[in-house]
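Appendix B, example 12.
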Amino acid sequence: MKSQRMSFDDLATAARQQGIRRFASVEIAVLEPDGRVSFFTQDATESGAAEGPAAS
């Protein structure tokens, strides 16, 4: 994320916007090709854990 000039605050904000209350529960953050960030959390029941495929 550093090479994309994305700060910790940017990641924390994106996590909150996806309903992740505790950033410490994030295992992996993935910068998607469209610029969005996907989060995978330790607790799969937490909102924002994984997004399904986008509806077309």
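The longest helix spans residues 8-17. Residues 2-41 form one domain.
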